[in-house]
Amino acid sequence: MVQLKKISIHILSISLLGVFFLSNCGNKPKGNPSITGTIEGAGGQTIYLEKLEPQKAIILDSAKIEENGSFSIYKKAGEHTFYQIRVGKQKPNSSIAPNTNIMVIITDSTETLKITATYPTCSATYVVEGSEETNLLKEINAIVLANQARLDSLNKAYQQNPQAFDKIKATELMNTITAEQSASMKAFVEKHLGKFVTLQAIAMLNPDADLNLFKQSSELLSQKYPNNPFVLNFSSSVASLTKLAPGTIAPNFTISTPDDKPISLNDFKGKYVLIDFWASWCRPCRAQNPELVALYKKFKGKNFEIFGVSLDQNKEAWIQAIKDDKLTWPQGSDLQYWNAAPAKLYNVTFIPFNFLIGPDGTIIAKNLTGKALENKLLELLNSKQS
What we know:
This protein is an alpha/beta fold. It has three domains: about 15-135, Immunoglobulin-like, CATH 2.60.40; about 135-245, no CATH class; about 255-380, 3-Layer(aba) Sandwich (Glutaredoxin). About 35% of the residues lie in helices and about 20% in strands. It is built from ten helices and 16 strands. Strands 1-4-3-6-7 form a five-stranded mixed beta sheet. The protein is elongated and about 75 Å long. About 30% of the residues are buried.
């Protein structure tokens, strides 16, 4: 069954918050509460203030919601970062959704917030006073949810009548929605450059297309939030991307061929070389291999080479896949799966993935496939299409 793909949404949601570390909230401190509000329909539930960190949430405080829905949380937030207000038990969820018991906020110890919402659809109904960046975060989420709804309607139309479904027009519409969302996120980041909330928007952009914006954001955020784990992760990723940007020198590596001989990227100096990251267990890789075989036949002997780098663990399976798929170009692997040294060096987080390297060792492009790759090689090699 054909499934229309959804826009990849890298958004803070409870899918990132799988591990909870309980703290002893103890007696409430005296003084004014830091967060107050009303959660309609949540009387008798417990409400939690939690600090978010990559892959975990830490409970800072909790309170009992009164029967009329009112609540008060006294402990202040700490540094300026992502927090969440959770009402009742955690609901498992793999992506942002309009009907969860989670309200993500951006705040710090200097702000006093007032929150209103309706339980259990808190994520869709919450209103926050006293936090400019939380309201900006809600703007981002609203854009993403609206686009996701458009894609969901396409999927629904296909499921209801697959025979009458115009897949070409649907693909064009999906591409339009993706492009519109990227344009919205880029405009948001540029408008609010340096604000913490831009981490949410820039995560939905293509770093290869907007690397300068990524670098500028990383520099500003690192100056303002040098120890924040989200900023540190972002800056680390940008640093890796910068080292692998088109025009930079491709880092050399050495691995072993199927017959246990060393093979290095530097062995291909003077040629255009496509580093093809793949594995025998990767179905999309295997499905793409016939295209590469045809491409190799077309350009072999024209100063072009493919260097297959496998993320296999099982040597026999790797060798069998090379034979079955008729891959006649040089191959290498250290048989370390996702811990493969070349994959780490090139920041490869999914496969298939490739890098096109020039004769002088510079990176020309990343992850070109199909006609885009063929046309690029025609351009570079000054060949005529056969």
